[in-house]
Amino acid sequence: MIHVVVAEDMGLLRSALCAALSNEEDIEVVADAAGIGELWGVLRREHPEVLVLELKPEVPESPSVVAKVVAESPGTAVLAMSHRWSPPLVEAALAAGARGLVSKDAGLSELVRAVRTTAAGERVIDPAAAAAVLSPPANPLTRRELEVLRVAAEGLPLKEIARRLFLAHGTVRNHLSVILRKTGARNRMEAVRLAQRDGWL
User: Fold this and answer.
1) How far is the C-alpha of 190 from the C-alpha of 156, rounded, in Å?
2) CB proximity list for 90: less than 8 A, separation 6 or greater
3) Average pLDDT for 76-95
4) Torsions phi, psi for 62 (to 5 deg)
5) Which pLDDT score, from 0 to 100, does residue 136 have?
6) Residue 170: DSSP 8-state
7) Can you tell me the mean pLDDT for 182-201?
8) CB-based contact 43:68 (threshold 8 Å)
9) How many CB atoms lie within 10 A of CB 184?
10) Of 199, 89, 91, which is closest to residue 146 (Cα–Cα)?
11) Is residue 150 pLDDT above 80, yes or no?
12) pTM for the whole structure
């Protein structure tokens, strides 16, 4: 029997994952965790063979949770799950010690196979995670736009960004407008997060 813990903060999805995995004859979901805070107590109590752990691409430090699990619960294989894989997230998750990577939109049969594979000590990387590394999204930003975004990431006002880059105030505003349009972001900090997620910054 493969003992599994599911750590996912969306209650409905977490319940669905637990129910689906528990239907398998060789898998038992021994516990679930709504957040990282309660995860450590669950791991110490249950010692599962596999932890299905959600990684958020918009939270750069989330792979550090993988490293902590590997260090504190070495008998537990981490199967990292994300709604969107990017090259930096894939690299960080694997470097932190994740044994498997799976997409949140993967089919149930793929998830079950990934749980069994990681429990057996083998590595599994689903097609979406592999494609993120082999065919990363093209960077639509010019070198100058990246410079503007890099300085904007510091949270500086337009006037200070313009002064730092020796540009006119209106030029910086135009660059930021184009950056928002190209990335589909609602504001400059969201554009920064998207660019970091996809490895452009």
Assistant:
1) 15
2) 101, 125, 129, 132, 133
3) 90
4) -60, -35
5) 65
6) H
7) 85
8) no
9) 9
10) 199
11) yes
12) 0.71
